[in-house]
């Protein structure tokens, strides 16, 4: 297994400025800019690298959002939740059920380890990813679905208001692990309560992740089945633990896998890094491939169907030529270089 790397970590005022001054040598002017918040994340998002941010002000939620408070202020609005007998949720093989519960009942259940009332077993696991009013059309927005709680959460102003896409509640039972996937929007995931481990993989390691669409088939990333997934060891793993109040910036296309080390409440904000027309309009989740990418994937499918008209040895030859052509025309750096890239703090 490749060595594990820590994701670059900044504390909002001091370390971040030190990092910047090491890089640019203008400590004071950047300190001033950093205070505006926006320029801080512009700096990080221009790097297109994940980063953990500590000490960013996200409102009163970190002090207020106890289970009782959430249940009371969140009310009894119905929410659709994932329920699973196993802690590792598997979207590809659907080892969970979708069930609807009143929000207050759900929060109390997710916070307890053994359940008197349950769907599958008394030790089942719960996960909420909040949805929009019409989930097929509208992205989630905490402000609209949970206004009584949204007033405790202040979205860090790290992007322009017009770039905002969605604001999503993420609530997990202790031990719950979410499958490895990527999203197409830039993301700030705020850990409000509980601790969470986050593992990331670079988009440049996609070929080692055994993808099925936007998800990896490798469910157990800590003990992967290397007979089925021998190349998984080549994927470089970046890891951090979020404490309450910490944020992680997950750039679009970075794969992430999360493990709730405790019952945890989080909120994530997705925003558009690219012009609005680049994104699929019918995508309330922020995980549909960009319009141009989807077109390219369809064209690849057509090319592969055309190859089927050839005998196997010719098909093999032209498939290899196509791979080489794509690599030389479209990769931003040769694969070898990508493998050696170092996103760790030392590289700053
Ligand atoms: O709830 C989680 O930990 C997963 C978060 C996630 O996938 C996201 O913010 O995009
Ligand atoms: Fe995600």
From TrEMBL:
It catalyses: 7-[(3S)-3-amino-3-carboxypropyl]wyosine(37) in tRNA(Phe) + 2-oxoglutarate + O2 = 7-(2-hydroxy-3-amino-3-carboxypropyl)wyosine(37) in tRNA(Phe) + succinate + CO2. Pfam families: Cupin_8 (PF13621). The keyword ATP-binding does not apply. SUPFAM superfamilies: Clavaminate synthase-like. InterPro entries: Cupin_8, JmjC_dom. Pathway: tRNA modification; wybutosine-tRNA(Phe) biosynthesis. GO terms for biological process: wybutosine biosynthetic process. PROSITE patterns: JMJC. GO terms for molecular function: metal ion binding; tRNA binding; tRNA(Phe) (7-(3-amino-3-carboxypropyl)wyosine37-C2)-hydroxylase activity. Keywords: Dioxygenase, Iron, Metal-binding, Oxidoreductase, tRNA processing. Residues 135-288 form the JmjC domain. Its EC number is 1.14.11.42. Its cofactor is Fe(2+). Belongs to the TYW5 family. PANTHER family: HYPOXIA-INDUCIBLE FACTOR 1 ALPHA INHIBITOR-RELATED (PTHR12461), TRNA WYBUTOSINE-SYNTHESIZING PROTEIN 5 (PTHR12461:SF104). tRNA hydroxylase that acts as a component of the wybutosine biosynthesis pathway. Wybutosine is a hyper modified guanosine with a tricyclic base found at the 3'-position adjacent to the anticodon of eukaryotic phenylalanine tRNA. Catalyzes the hydroxylation of 7-(a-amino-a-carboxypropyl)wyosine (yW-72) into undermodified hydroxywybutosine (OHyW*). OHyW* being further transformed into hydroxywybutosine (OHyW) by LCMT2/TYW4. OHyW is a derivative of wybutosine found in higher eukaryotes. Homodimer. This is tRNA wybutosine-synthesizing protein 5. The gene is TYW5.
């Amino acid at each position: 297994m490749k060595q594990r790397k820590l994701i670059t970590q900044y504390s909002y005022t001091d370390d971040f400025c030190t990092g910047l001054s090491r890089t640019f040598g203008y400590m004071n002017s950047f300190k001033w800019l950093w205070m505006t918040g926006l320029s801080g994340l512009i700096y990080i998002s221009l790097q297109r690298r994940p980063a953990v941010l500590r000490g960013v002000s996200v409102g009163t939620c970190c002090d207020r959002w106890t289970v009782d408070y959430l249940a009371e202020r969140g009310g009894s609005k119905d929410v659709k939740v994932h329920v699973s007998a196993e802690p590792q949720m598997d979207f590809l093989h659907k080892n969970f059920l979708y069930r609807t519960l009143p929000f207050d009942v759900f929060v109390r259940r997710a916070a307890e380890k053994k359940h008197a009332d349950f769907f599958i077993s008394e030790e089942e696991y719960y996960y909420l990813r909040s949805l929009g009013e019409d989930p097929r059309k509208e992205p989630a927005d905490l402000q609209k679905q949970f206004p009584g709680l949204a007033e405790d959460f202040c979205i860090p102003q790290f992007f322009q208001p017009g770039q905002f896409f969605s604001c999503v509640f993420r609530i997990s039972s202790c031990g719950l692990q979410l499958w490895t996937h990527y999203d197409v929007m830039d993301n700030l995931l705020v850990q409000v309560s509980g601790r969470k481990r986050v593992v990331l993989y670079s988009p440049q390691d996609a070929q080692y992740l055994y993808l099925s669409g936007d998800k990896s088939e490798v469910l157990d990333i800590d003990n992967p089945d290397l007979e089925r997934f021998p190349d998984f060891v080549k994927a470089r793993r970046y890891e951090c633990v979020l404490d309450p109040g910490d944020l992680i910036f997950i750039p679009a296309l970075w794969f992430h896998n999360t493990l709730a080390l405790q019952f945890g409440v989080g909120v994530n904000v997705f925003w558009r890094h690219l012009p609005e027309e680049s994104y699929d309009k019918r995508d309330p989740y922020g995980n549909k491939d960009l319009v141009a990418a989807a077109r390219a994937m369809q064209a690849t499918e057509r090319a592969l169907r055309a190859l089927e008209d050839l005998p196997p040895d010719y098909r093999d030859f032209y498939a290899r030529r196509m791979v080489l052509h794509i690599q030389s025309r479209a990769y931003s750096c040769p694969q070898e270089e990508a493998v050696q890239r170092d996103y760790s703090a030392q590289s700053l």
